[in-house]
Every structure is written in structure tokens, then in C-alpha cells.
């Protein structure tokens, strides 16, 4: 097998293991559901509009698992971010540049510690072009 094939297989195996871990280690209070009415980017993956489940999983290093009912799935390794006040509802925060959306933060209901995703290469490129950034907040359902 070529090196590229091995890397692809390893990446698919890693995602599969994270999905299994999400089902086995999902912690109470660390899941939310939201209807996202636009396609959006997480890392380098484009996710279509739809109904999403977002889970925070893991016991040491914690990951976000973002999935929909049609089998679209991705993971992200967030950084902690502290809010100035407690969030009343669970929310997803997106950065919007024109018609492009990037998942930026995930906030749990009643929490002042959120989860911030690092900016992707594509989002950094858009910022470097000087495009205006807006924030779009989607509340859990």
C-alpha cells in the first residue's frame, strides 16, 4: 500500500474510534441538538444544513463529535473559553463571511466555560483577505 493510502486508512480508523468513544463515553450534560439552516465548515470539512447532535466526549483529552442523522460526521479538538456570564441556553456560534460559515464555539446550557474551535486554514485565508466577519448564534432545540 502507498503511504497516502495508509494515511487515509489511519484517518478513517481514528474517526471510527472517536464515534465508538462518543457512544461509550458521552458524559451527562455534554450533548446538545441544534437545527442549522446553512452549510458550515468544521476544520476542513463542509457539513450540510440539517439537524445536528454535538457531543463532548473523552475523559482526558476531550473532543467534540458533530453529527447529523444522514451520517455526516466530524470531530474537533476545542480549546476552553471562559464567558463573562453563564449561558442560559446551549448554543453554537458561527463566524460568517458572506455566505461561508465556520463553527467557532459550542456553549452548554448553564455553563460559563465553552469550547472554542481553532480557526481552519480556509477561515484564516478569508480573514487575510479582509472580509467582514459576523457572528451567527444557533440555539439548541
* Structural class computed from helices and strand pairing: alpha+beta
Low-confidence segments, ≥5 residues, pLDDT <50? Answer: 6-28
Helix content: 10-25%
Largest sheet: 5 strands, antiparallel
Question: What is the residue-averaged pLDDT?
Answer: 83
Order of helices and strands: HEEEEEEEEEEHE
Oligomer: single chain
Radius of gyration: 15 Å
Shape: globular
Tally of contiguous helical segments: 2
Distance between the ends:
45 Å
Number of strands: 11
User: What is the domain tally?
Assistant: 1
Estimated share of beta-strand residues = 35-45%
Strand order of the largest sheet: 7-10-9-8-11
SSE arrangement:
Layout: H1 3-25, E1 31-36, E2 40-42, E3 45-47, E4 50-57, E5 63-68, E6 73-76, E7 79-82, E8 91-97, E9 100-107, E10 113-116, H2 121-128, E11 134-139
Antiparallel strand pairs: 1-4, 2-3, 4-5, 5-6, 7-10, 8-9, 8-11, 9-10
Could you describe the 3D structure shown?
The protein has a five-stranded antiparallel sheet, with no helix packed on it. A four-stranded antiparallel sheet has the order 1-4-5-6. The chain has helices at 3-25, 121-128, and strands spanning 31-36, 40-42, 45-47, 50-57, 63-68, 73-76, 79-82, 91-97, 100-107, 113-116, 134-139. The radius of gyration is 15 Å and the shape is globular. β4 and β5 (63-68) form a beta hairpin. It is built from two helices and eleven strands. It is an alpha+beta fold. The longest helix has 23 residues, at 3-25. The termini are far apart. Helices cover 22% and strands 42% of the residues. The chain has one domain.
Amino acid at each position: 500500500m502507498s503511504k497516502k493510502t495508509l494515511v487515509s486508512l489511519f484517518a478513517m480508523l481514528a474517526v471510527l474510534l472517536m464515534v465508538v468513544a462518543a457512544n461509550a463515553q458521552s458524559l451527562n450534560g455534554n450533548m446538545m441538538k441544534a437545527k442549522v439552516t446553512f452549510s458550515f465548515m468544521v476544520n476542513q470539512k463542509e457539513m450540510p444544513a440539517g439537524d445536528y447532535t454535538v457531543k463532548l466526549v473523552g475523559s482526558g483529552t476531550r473532543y467534540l463529535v458533530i453529527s447529523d442523522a444522514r451520517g455526516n460526521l466530524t470531530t474537533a479538538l476545542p480549546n476552553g473559553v471562559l464567558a463573562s456570564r453563564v449561558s442560559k441556553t446551549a448554543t453554537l456560534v458561527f463566524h460568517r463571511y458572506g455566505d461561508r460559515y465556520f463553527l467557532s464555539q459550542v456553549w452548554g446550557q448553564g455553563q460559563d466555560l465553552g469550547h472554542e474551535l481553532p480557526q481552519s486554514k480556509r477561515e484564516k485565508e478569508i480573514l487575510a483577505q479582509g472580509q467582514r466577519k459576523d457572528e451567527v448564534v444557533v440555539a439548541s432545540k
